[in-house]
Amino acid sequence: MTPSRPETKVLPTSRPGRQSHWYDFHAAQQPDWDDPQARDEICTQLAERPVLVSVDELRALRQELAAVAAGRSLVLQAGDCAESFAQSTPEHAAAKADTVATLADRLAADTGTAVVRIGRIAGQYAKPRSAPTELVGERELPSFRGHIVNDPAPEEDARRHRPQRLLQAYEASRTTARALRERPQRLWTSHEALILDYEVPLVRFDEAAADLFLGSTHLPWVGERTRQSDGAHVRLLADVVNPVGCKVSGSGPIEELLRVCERLDPDRTPGRLTLISRFGADHVARQLPDVASAVRAAGHPVVWLCDPMHGNTYRSRVGLKTRQLSVIQQEVRGFVTALRAAGVHPGGLHLEVSAQPVTECVGAEVADEEQLTTRYTTLCDPRLSPRQAAEVVRTFTEGL
C-alpha cells in the first residue's frame, strides 16, 4: 500500500521541499487506523516533540561501527522481540541494559576486542506480520502488530489500529531513553523503522550539518518485509544521516540487495550500513558467501551481523512458537564460516533476548517443548533467556 500523507504541520526543522515526501512511495505493513483525523493530529503533535537522539551521538555511533567494519571491534545487539508499554519503565530499562552489558562483557573478555553495545530498546514497539489476521483459539482476529498499533488481548476491539498509540510509543521510548542516559556505560538504541506515521514526524533537519536525521533512535533498520529498494522505508533511511541497518536473507536476488546497498550507502562510507543476516541454519553456509562477496565487490564497507533467530522459528507440539538453541548455534557457526570464506569480518550478533529467565526457546535450562509453558511471556516471537544467550555468544567467539 501507499499510505496517505497525514495532514500535519510542516516539520519544524525539515529540509524545505522535502517534507514527508516518503509518503509518495509504496510502504508495506502500515496500519489501517480507525480514526484518520486523530492520526493527522497525532502526527502533528509528534512533529513538535523533542527528539530522542542527537546528531553528535549518531556521529559517535557511526565512528564505532566504522571500527567494526574495519575488523577492529565487534557488535552485540540484543533485546526484546517486541517491547511492552507496561515494561517501559526505568527499572525494566536497567534490567535490559544489564543483560546486554553482561553479554557484551563476555564477548569482549573472550575475544579481547572492543564491543559496541546496542539494544533493541526504546522504540521496538512495531512488528510486521505475515497475514492481516490470526487465529486466537478458534477466533479469527486482526493480527497483533505491536503496542504502537494495537493490543494483544484476544478481543476485536483491542485489535483495532488506534493512532493514539503512536503518542504512547513516543512517551514509553522517551522514558526508556532517559533511563539509559543515566547509566555510566552507553547503550545505543535501535528498532525497526516500520510505522511511517511514527518515524516521519520525528525526522529533523540539523542546521549545522545541513542534514536530515531520524530522531526516534540511534540505529534504525529495515526488515525482511520492508526492504524494497524503491519502497518508502528504504528511501526514508536513505535520506537520514543515522547509521542504518537492513535485514538480509536468501528470499530475493542479490541484485536487489545491491540496489538497497546503493541507496542506503551511495558513498561507501564505513559505519553507515549494517547488514543483518537471517538466512536460517540450513541455508546460511550455502547462500551467505555469494551475498557477502557481491556486497564486498560493490565496494560497500558494511558491518555484518548474525541474526540466528528469525530464520529458525517453528510451531512446537504445545502450540507455541519456539526456536531450538542448537539450531541457533548452528546458524552462528555457519555465519562465521561463510564470512571467513568470503574474506569478510564477522561483525557480531543480533539477538532477541529477555532480561528474565523465560522459557521460550528450547535448550540449556529448557529441556524440552513441554517446558515452554512455564514462563512464556513474549508479545510476539520467542526470545532467548540470558543463559541461552550466553551460550550463543560462546558459540560465536569459538568460531572466530
UniProtKB/TrEMBL annotation:
Q: In the record's cofactor note, how is the cofactor described as bound?
A: Binds 1 divalent cation per subunit. The enzyme is active with manganese, cobalt or cadmium ions.
**Binding positions (phosphoenolpyruvate):** 120, 224-225, 247, 278
Q: In which pathway does it act?
A: Metabolic intermediate biosynthesis; chorismate biosynthesis; chorismate from D-erythrose 4-phosphate and phosphoenolpyruvate: step 1/7
Which reactions fall under this protein's catalytic activity? D-erythrose 4-phosphate + phosphoenolpyruvate + H2O = 7-phospho-2-dehydro-3-deoxy-D-arabino-heptonate + phosphate
Q: What are the required cofactors? A: Mn(2+); Co(2+); Cd(2+)
Q: What InterPro entries does the entry give?
A: Aldolase_TIM, DAHP_synth_2
Locate the transmembrane regions by residue number. none
EC code(s) of this entry: 2.5.1.54
GO BP term (any one): chorismate biosynthetic process
Binding residues annotated for Mn(2+), in chain numbering: 81, 310, 352, 381
**Domain of life (superkingdom):** Bacteria
Any one GO molecular-function label of the UniProt entry: 3-deoxy-7-phosphoheptulonate synthase activity
Which of UniProt's keywords are assigned here?
Answer: Amino-acid biosynthesis, Aromatic amino acid biosynthesis, Cadmium, Cobalt, Manganese, Transferase
Family named by the database record: Belongs to the class-II DAHP synthase family.
Q: What protein does this entry describe?
A: Phospho-2-dehydro-3-deoxyheptonate aldolase
From which organism does this entry originate?
A: Kitasatospora kifunensis
- What is the organism lineage in this UniProt record? Bacteria, Bacillati, Actinomycetota, Actinomycetes, Kitasatosporales
